Amino acid sequence: ERETFKQVNKEVYCNESKRMKGSLFSGSVAAGLIVVLMAIMTIFITGGQPWFGISAGTLVLMFSYTNNLTLRFNMLTSVMQSVNQAFGDAHDMTVVLDEPRLVDDVENAPELKVTHGEISFTDLSFSYSDGNAPTEVFDNFNLHIPAGQRIGLVGKSGSGKTTVTRLLLRLSDIQGGTVNIDGQDISKVSQSSLRRQIAYVPQEPLLFHRTIAENIAYGRPDATNEQIRQAAIDANALEFIETLPDGFETITGERGVKLSGGQRQRIAIARAILTNAPILVLDEATSALDNRTQAIVTESLNKLKTTRIVIAHRLSTIRDCDRIIVFDKGQIAESGTFGELVSQNGIFADLAKRQTA
Questions:
Q1: Which of 27, 124, 182, 296 is the most core-located residue (most Cβ within 10 A)?
Q2: How far is CA 87 from the centre of its chain?
């Protein structure tokens, strides 16, 4: 790291030296022009009347114009430096703005209207195009989630669990098949309306450098203080919030740095509860919670009338789900309730034995 710093520092030093040399050169040129102009003007002022018969008023006018011109030459150097710096600063932003959008709305895309929360993945084909060769995740994948059902997704890392939620949120576009919510193809509706209907809680929740109350109310800005407090109670967050010096007005810090992992997760869950969207996606959202807190949060979530998708490696998180889907290499290997899957002695039963062991 020290050698890397030295190399970068050397490059900065060289570039700064070039800039200073350029500034000195342009400054010298401007100064030279000013000296020449002033010398000519001195000659005219000194001998203008006797040599050329120039009147005093004309001499004053020439002096004023020359003085203004020299001032402009003097400003030219700083103006050119400012323009050059502006182009340099604009370069990186231009690169970002010119980056093509990976997911675009169709023209005049309508709003998504969700009344029940039924989700269908039909004949799904998807592969990541990063790198030299595409990485296939799904090929002719099918999954139907009835409205209001709570399903758990489990499987090895890379089996496609999180990718399902990314495609549902349309963070990536599929290559084949359809994803429907209440019979509406999500690729045909506006992305903003789609994401308003889905409350998403990732494993590493994103908190803003705002108060706890503002972070909870982010998905519902018009929420009252009482509604924010109730959401915090349902997420079992009120207990630690009240111990903080400023309570709900405590600033969380950048990305919630002032809070622990479990506290950040509870704030994010409180935000999802307050949003009360018809579809709830939890991606390892309780991984940092202890068993008691997890049970309280799960009980509160069970009161919500939502279609819930829970991604979990800790199987106790999905014990109360109506159905558990076991992923294996982009396909559904097993499906059933917790008890049914344990009794099948398959992939899920093996995962359960390893955890209980």
A1: 124
A2: 27
Does the pTM surpass 0.90? The reply is: no
User: Does 43 have pLDDT greater than 80?
Assistant: no
Q: What strands, in cross-sheet order, belong to the sheet with 198-201?
A: 198-201, 279-283, 307-311, 150-155, 323-328, 331-336
Which is nearest to 173 in space by CA: 181, 161, 184, 185? 185
Q: Which pLDDT band, with edges at 50, 70 and 90, does 188 fall under?
A: very high
- Helix, strand, coil: what percent of the chain each, to 5? 50, 20, 30
Rounded to whole angstroms, the Cα distance separating 203 from 226 reads 27
Distance CA 195, CA 172 (A): 13
Find out whether 284 and 312 touch, Cβ atoms under 8 Å. yes
Residues 73-100 have pLDDT tens digits of 777 777 877 888 888 889 888 988 888 8
Sheet strands side by side (includes 119-128): 135-145, 119-128, 176-181, 184-185
The whole-number average pLDDT for the span 116-135 is 83
